[in-house]
Amino acid sequence: MTTDTAPSQSVYPVTRDEGASSEAILAVIVDNEPGVLARVVGLISARGYNIESLTVAETDVEKHTSRITIVTTGTPAKIEQIKAQLGRLVPVRRVIDVSREADALERELALIKVINSGDHRLESMRLADIFRARALDTTHASFVFEITGARDKINAFIELMKPLGLKEVSRTGVLSIRRGAESD
């Protein structure tokens, strides 16, 4: 028996007419209680989507709320479906598609360890200065740089450090907030 269909890249069913995938940054305001993070992550992973970045922390002690920031990719229809399903979870107070907000700021923090010597050390410090990265720790053989900014900036810094002795990277994931007087 022969088939004319090519093997699928994923174990999850994909409809051909879904449209192009794009990145979505979702801020989910939730009640800060046990199991909420597991329920939110489970809902997304159960639909076959990868979470590229996940950041969560309590944001209001008095209201007992936390903010979960999730970066994922999918078709616009699938992202809308995820937002709607997240909104139906009982501990979820609000879902904001930050990637569609014109007045949102997005930042990430990374710690980057570089081990090198000689001219590579000088070049590492020069690039750190250009990218406004701070040297948090310096030894005779290594640096640990702290850099904050847009993910593209951090990715560019990491790529430039690879030939200079990049050894380790630790990243926070995306954080976001609206500009101006409005609040999430």
Any chance you could write out the topology, listing elements then pairs?
Blueprint: E1 22-31, H1 36-46, E2 51-60, E3 65-74, H2 76-88, E4 92-97, E5 104-115, H3 119-130, E6 134-138, E7 142-149, H4 151-161, E8 166-171, E9 175-178
Antiparallel strand pairs: 1-3, 1-4, 2-3, 5-7, 5-8, 5-9, 6-7
Give structural notes.
With 184 residues, the protein is of the alpha+beta class. It has two domains: 19-100, Alpha-Beta Plaits; 104-178, ACT-like. Chain A, domain 2 (Alpha-Beta Plaits), CATH 3.30.70. It has helices at residues 36-46, 76-88, 119-130, 151-161, and strands spanning 22-31, 51-60, 65-74, 92-97, 104-115, 134-138, 142-149, 166-171, 175-178. The strands form two sheets. Strands 5, 6, 7, 8 and 9 form a five-stranded antiparallel beta sheet that branches. A four-stranded antiparallel beta sheet has the order 2-3-1-4, covered by helices on one side. A hairpin with a 4-residue loop joins β2 and β3 (65-74). The protein is elongated and about 55 Å long.
Summarize this structure briefly:
This protein is of the alpha+beta class. It is built from 4 helices and 9 strands. About 25% of the residues lie in helices and about 40% in strands.
Q: Per the principal axes of the C-alpha atoms, what is the gross shape? A: elongated
* CATH domain fold name of the largest domain: Alpha-Beta Plaits
In CATH, the homologous superfamily of the largest domain goes by the name: ACT domain
Regarding CATH, which class of the largest domain? Alpha Beta
Which regions are unreliable across 5 or more consecutive residues at pLDDT < 50?
1-8
Multimeric status of the protein = single chain
The share of residues in extended strands comes to: 35-45%
